[in-house]
Amino acid sequence: MFTWLNEQQCSFYYNKASHIRKWKGFRLIGIDGSTLQLPYSKELAKGFGHFETRTENGRKVVLARVSQAYDVLNQISIDAKIKHYRTSELALCESHLPCLGPGDLLIMDRAYAAFWLMSSLVQQQKSFVIRVKANRWKHAKAFLASTQKQQIIEVSPSKEALNRCRERNISTEALKLRLVRVPIASGEDHILITNLVDHKKYPVKEIRELYRKRWPVEESFKLLKTRAELENLSGKTARAVLQDFNRIILRANLSNILSKTLTKKGIDYCNKKRKNTYQINRTQAYRKTKSIIDQLKQGMDKIIGKISDYAFKLLLQLEIIRPNRSVPRIKRYTARPSNFITYKP
Prior knowledge:
GO biological process, one term: DNA transposition
Distance between the termini: 22 Å
Pfam family, one: DDE_Tnp_1
Structural class: alpha+beta
Shape: globular
Protein name: Transposase IS4 family protein
Number of helices: 11
GO molecular function: DNA binding; transposase activity
Family: Belongs to the transposase 11 family.
Strand content: 15-25%
Oligomer: single chain
């Protein structure tokens, strides 16, 4: 039910909203995956997979693989999946494709650089920008060794890629693609591959900036795990996990849709009067959505009152947008917290 409700609210939003953000006519879709640590039970271990840790006396840990097709400009999770831990990110990406259309531009990291996937996207008239590993792609390796900023290449499938394409009834013809170099602060270069081959319409600078727009899909997982407490579930059955996962995705989308729709004029007014640019605090938007959901069965009068109160409170808790903000990661081992079952009154 939650999946259907999410499909309905997303469809309504894209059909009715007047402020849908796009890039050169494209809806930008970031696809990325992550893992969830689930409470241990025999049913969950069988359904999602488990392993024994090398510490803590071989404690059994259940993990699930999750993936999203995420509208990075409008912050909407168009499609979200939770599967067995051994499910590959490529397989999950493939499962998202029926929810996307020709007007979507997919932005993905190195885990998705596969010929069969790119050929499938070209066949479906979908555009993409994918980061590639230079040590695994001969074209990228040669391009990295050169001094060029961009290069048009023709990519043919390997034997393994041929088999993958034939299994899925995907074209095995060579692809005309474009490599783009992206210098980063560390002095290294990242390599992007795309089927946006028109360098006049899509200059190198814009392709570089385009890949950076993928970041909100990473941030969405952080919000789901920390603010929405996605790993603290209401039960130890596969059904409970699926319900909680889809319910949280539904609520996260609802909070983004309501906050953007209800506060746009207020934020625009505030930004005209202030030195810095402000945006909605997404943590507060998600937390305050619960009061609206609680009123769904109480009638429209109470819902309208709650929505007005919701918008007013969000405008009082705006946060500054800090472009190009970079905080170095400090890698240290920290024990993950135990899973807690959600309280049921």
